[in-house]
Amino acid sequence: MSFIKDIDSIREIAEQKRLLEYLVFDKDFAKKFEADRKKTLESIGLGDLDTEHAASLYKEFINKKTLMRESVKAAGEPSNPQFAKWRNRQIGRCTMMFSKEQSDSLVHLPILFELSKGCSIGCKFCGLNSGPLKTVFMATEENKKLWADVMDAAVKLIGPAVGEGICYYGTEPLDNPDYGYFSQDWFERFGKYPQITTAAALRNVEKTRELLKQLDPFKETIFRFSVRSLDEFTTIAREFTPEELLMVELLPQFEEAPGNALAKVGRNATENEYSGTISCVSGFKVNMCDRSISLITPVEASERFPLGQIELKKVIFTDGEDFERKLETMISGMKTILSPNEKLSLYDYLYYNVENNTCKIYNKYGVGYQFDFPDYSDLIQKLFDSLNSGLYTRREIVEKLEIKNAEGWDSLAFHSIINNMWNRGLIVDSQLYE
Fold first, then answer.
1. Which residue from 246, 250, 272 is spatially nearest to 260, judged by alpha carbons?
2. Domain containing residue 410
């Protein structure tokens, strides 16, 4: 997917993006801009910008970037049917757990890889509460072989969806001096470079500039810079041209910024005020330093889940063959069907209303589904009341309905309704909350 129509529009889009960045980073910029647009644009090097025309081009650019998120989410579907079914249910669950804006932003990567243990930056807003940097997975000959074996096994079990992953998570990618080796290997395997988010863009400007050459406005890859102060932003704007940063999202990660949207999660959850998530994975986090595989998925941050994610299981592997065995076992252990003896319940953040043969299920943000059941509103009310109680198994719920065969409806149909709700992530997955 190309973000722009032609090369001639790059400059205008990039400069419009730079203007908007000043607006979201500098709380005083909007007043200056309204008072004297020409002078203010000249002060940031955009003196000849046609803001009206550039804004229309930029709007189309942003719309395509939004579509790209859905493209990444779709391409991230594993080829393994059990994993795919499990992941799709997590996507449905998150759709109903979060606001539309939040759930739309989650791409549910099937797998990612960390090339270091801990982080050298120590950002006070770190949503994953990373500890200090301990070690780095260098590109030694031994590690290159392990990396190749692990990647081969991941592709074998998960498929081309591995290529939608990334090579960092609760880490700083630029902490690894050999990051370039691994990203180049990624490109040779999947035809694109992995996305990065870095808070160290200014650590070595020339090295960062070299890294930016991986970006192509006619392809999908984007980078992100976490920006921790207004001074850091103005330095970035001085060191890099608008065109160089066209495919880089600058994230205002400090409270004074008008565009600050820090999630109350991890280290940023002050006084136990939790909300949101920054987790983007419904699948596996592989740390190459401690040779661990964790199965994780997003959840609303809380005192119980302060990082905004649930870790279902974590195992250690020794080599490529062991990695393949452990990953295959973890995939086969993913819960995809309801147990006959399991007492079912709706998630406690869901509400429902049955009226005129229609049931609406929704969350506090107004996000929801509508189910139509002609001529069976009385049974549907009992169905949802039983699910809401959390006291009955699927068989017991259907028996309580006292269904009589009529107009094609029978007990099997209601079993199917319950299974459909489970697959959409509306019924509590006990495996997540063990």
1. 250
2. 351-423
Q: What angle do CA 96, 98, 101 make, to 5 degrees?
A: 115
pLDDT of residue 68: 84
| Domain identity same for 260 and 312 | yes
Q: Check: CB of residue 296 under 8 Å from CB of residue 316.
A: no
- Same domain membership, residue 418 and residue 370: yes
In a domain, 150, yes or no: yes
pTM value? 0.93
Residue 157 half-sphere exposure toward CB, CA atoms < 13 A: 24
* Same structural domain, 307 and 170: yes
Same domain, 261 and 404: no
Would you report the helix, strand and coil content of the chain in percent, each value rounded to 5?
45, 15, 40
User: How far is 180 from 186, CA to CA, in rounded Å?
Assistant: 10
Percentage of the chain exceeding pLDDT 70: 95
Q: What SS3 class is residue 84? A: helix
Q: Which two tokens stand for residue 33?
A: 């801009």
Tell me how far apart the alpha carbons of residues 101 and 274 are, in angstroms, rounded to a whole number.
17
User: How many CA atoms within 13 Å lie on the side-chain side of 404?
Assistant: 3
140 and 83 co-located in one domain: yes
Crossing angle for the helix pair 320-332 and 141-158, to the nearest 10 degrees: 30
Asked whether residue 260 falls in the same domain as residue 395, the answer is no
